[in-house]
Amino acid sequence: MSLYRNTIWFLNGIQQYTRKGYEATSKDFETKDFDVSVVGRSYMITGANSGIGKATAMALAKKGGTVHMVCRNKDRAEEAKSEIVSESGNTEVYIHILDMSQTRKVWEFAEGFKKEYPSLNVLINNAGCMMHKRELNAEGLEMNFATNTMGVYILTQTLIPLLQKSQDPRVITVSSGGMLVQKLRADDLQSEKAHFDGIMVYAQNKRQQVVLTEHWANVNPVIHFSAMHPGWVDTPAVSTAMPQFHQMMGDRLRSVDQGADTVVWLALSRAAARKPSGQFFQDRKPVPKHLPLAWTHSSAEEIHSFITQLENLARPVQSQHDVDPEGHVDAATPQFV
């Protein structure tokens, strides 16, 4: 069954997820969907110094938006910012240095951002990782899970109050079509029980993101939530994490701009905001979250268990504080550049 499901998924991907797939569907795109000015609206993008994140930041800056680039590497972030400002002519571009795998730091950053800025209109959860060996972060969380799921959960959950008081708030999570071959494993969120396969762990994290998006849409009706699949894109992350796949697909892979198109559409267009919240998008259209005849659906009990586990894992991180010698509590102030 697993082999059948994976084969169906791959054949489907060759048709839809490649450059040709994008070229076919983009013929039906409404160009007027991008005829908007977003001066005064603010956008936070994680993983914004390369690949889809950078292409998204560039597109939003060109439209006049205030762009908050959340990046792990300061030098690469500065380089990307310089390029974006130069090409867009928009100086409202800010860098925030943060490693999304450091769970406590993510919470501290989000708390600091809420104090520093009066609004945030759109959060784009784009940063991700695919590690092929099991490693743990400082909080003892598996690194893929820490970055792809826990980081997204804590950043979004902490920023929800700020988003709620902002106009037309949206949260977009860059997931992956790979999640279609995974059922939420609420009893093994950190991939401890089976053989550790980085690609399948990543796909499981991406399923977790889609379930989270549905949950958030249900409990936060003021905010428009969406997850999306960018297709198979030629990014530095793909070439590093999946070199054989990258080499095999070659120029059939989408460009970063093609991969970012639906992210930008979800962030900018009025048409996107009219779609029901909580959906999974591909090439500007909602698509099924499960393959035909798939057994990847989750029960209400499994989803409840998943959310409860995330809440429990977040609690100790959110209650930790540094105390200076005089007894003052210090939630570390993030670095704003």
UniProtKB/TrEMBL annotation:
Residues 318-337 are annotated as: Disordered. InterPro entries: NAD(P)-bd_dom_sf, SDR_fam, SDR_member_12. This is Dehydrogenase/reductase SDR member 12. It comes from Ilyodon furcidens (goldbreast splitfin).
